[in-house]
# Entry
Amino acid sequence: MGKRRSHAIRNVTLAMSLMLVAPISSLSSEEWGRGQAIFNSNCAICHGRDGSGGRGPNLLGSLKHGALNSDIEIVIRNGLPGAAMPKFNLEEEELHALIRYVQSLRHAAPSTLHAGGDRTAGKQLYDSQGCPSCHEIGNEGSTLGPNLTRIGASRSYEYLKTSIVDPSADVPEENRYLKIVTRDGRQFQGMWVNEDSFTVQIRLRDESFASFDKQNLKEVLHEKDSLMPNYRFKDADLKNLLAYLSSLVGAPSPASETQRKRRQR
Amino acid sequence: MRVAILLLAFSGLYRAQATDVTFDRLIHAQQDPGEWLTYWGDYHANRFRDLSQINDQNVAHLRLEWLFQTGGSGAFEAVPLVVDGVMYFTTPDTGIDAIDARSGRLLWRYQYTIPKGAKYCCGTVNRGLAILGRRLFMLTPDTRLLAIDIRNGSLLWNVEVASSKVGAYGGTEAPLIVKDKVVLGTAAGDYGIRGFVDAYEAQTGKRVWRFWTIPASGEPGNETWGGDSWKHGGAATWMTGTYDSELNTVYWGIGNPAPNLYGARRPGDNLYSDSVVALDPDTGKLKWYFQFTPHDTHDYDATETPMLVDLPWQGRIRKLLLEANRNGFFYVLDRETGQFLLAKAFAKQTWAKAIDNKGRPIMAPNIEPTSEGTVVCPQCAGATNWMAPSYNPLTRLFYVNVREGCDIFFSEPPVYKEGTSYWATNFRAEAQEHQAGRVTAIEPLTGETKWKFPLYSSPWAGTLTTAGNLVFAGDEDGYLMALQADTGRLLWKVNTGSRLVTSPVTYQLDGKQYLTMPAGGVVLTFALP
# Structure
């Protein structure tokens, strides 16, 4: 019947320190293969085939929601409200094979500690470069761009790095911006908020919402590139900024939660 | 009785209730446009009504007449029946409501409670009821068949269709009445069941026959399943069939083979998965079959509507079967013989190079799902699915809601265990992009697309067409809309506030035409001022 769906993903961990879990003693090759099959077809698209992360977080370091089998089970079963991690409806045995496989990846992984970086210096750079004019952390900053309150928990270190030096490398659909041209020639640009067959809603640079009736529009362009400029930092500065961003693991704002729920409907 | 209704109408008092719904009334449902007597509205599943009070000139004035809150949550996939002024439907939480079709006021409610400990595969979704005599018939999520008294909602009998001990089966569809029998099938093809179509005596609930959708060892067709794979081959029957009373033939769509995306487990064509079967409703014997997707590895169930239309085909009127299939092709068959007449892609598809002159696909290379993922179109949920299409004899067009987009198909060898899902595979939208859709009008004799109306999201709602030169359609973002049937021009729309997952119906009472659409937990009914 094939109505099961999985969704775009993002979430969980923080690769600050490596916390070892119980060694995997009794994983038969059959179980391992089964766990790998489930991981590859359900999880790899966001967490990478080796578990080192992508749009979704690195699973090889410490896990924000706990690294016990029971912690991982809760996250897989229920998903993470407010993050892009959906709940997965797996059979009991599949679930346990999957968890054992994830643990085996973690056990085999080299330390993913990202050395150094000065968070305080990173925060200074963040403020001085004008990042808050587009991004919000807690209640500080603009709501125009993606909220960064828990970006350290929802993206891998490597993904964050790429997002700074090459922001257009991967722009999730909900972070796209739109160029809109009305039939009478006016042009608008803003972040995608919602859309249907007949209307579209965007957030303008001044953070206000604008809504359009599509029959009055000449063009609605969903830009795949990011609005964010490519930043060319010195290595030390980049490391500091990444240290700061990786430390951001706060609760999501209610607004971003609502928006993600809509997307995951 | 009908005269009585008319006379009482003048005094402002409306009778609503309870004449017998005979088999003859069901056969002539399309000539009785004031009612909606079966899931499809008529045995041929045309979903056309010869009503034109609401038409392309005035539909812009359509407004809310009443709405009814069921209080239920979950997907409202039911199509309401309208019989003698009463509307009956299954609610999103396994109840049945009978409401006054003029005012939306509740007349009675029956609540089915799934027994503690019952296991079933496919959630509590239900697509509706069948009616015969003074009885309603409902297939429950735990695969039981109920007969309910239309006068007060009391339970008359409750019989097992399939076991709910291990959770291998599930019931989602509206049953089909043929003569004195209730015909139905089961969901759960992806749980490795062996599918079937059943018939039960409407009077007693006693099973009369069962047609297995996978031939057993020694039966013709069993050789299309390698080894013992036939025992868990799926081929479920989770949508309502259609019926031709002149040919005395039932047409039923058969679901995908299991495991869905892993074909190495089941070498061969896997009959009768992804086929339409023509059955004798008296005996359950197979008359003919046509398989759309042999050895399917993309979950392209053939459970889409097998619509019956009579049209001139190359010079003579022929009894045709039209189907917009999940695999992206629109098919025309001769429904007397099962002969293949036409296939034409109505959506982007990459799995077949062509369809040969027998109707068999010539497969494209490199389309097998793999552990790394393979991009194939249409998407796993199909170019269309169970949402109803419609056919308008005045425009001679077939209207279908189309799902665009492709998926990445992943596949790994699954493990069979009774009562659990038998796939261990998955699929994801290509590049995780938003998947769009459209309402499409197809000329059935050529398969050519006459017009398209774009939808922002891939839809799950069906269409309805009327003599008012209208097509009503729903979309995934909550819009119920009216399009001009011959041109596809948008004439009216309303945001219902909920994704739409069933198909609209229309009926006429006391000279007033109504349009009804379930949305969320609500039944919305519209009329002209």
Summary: Chain B has one domain: 2-527. The interface with chain A takes residues 122, 187-190, 236, 238, 255-256, 260, 299, 301, 371-373, 380-381, 408, 410-413, 415, 417, 420-421, 424-428, 432-434, 454-457, 475, 477-479, 493, 495, 499 of chain B (CB under 8 Å).
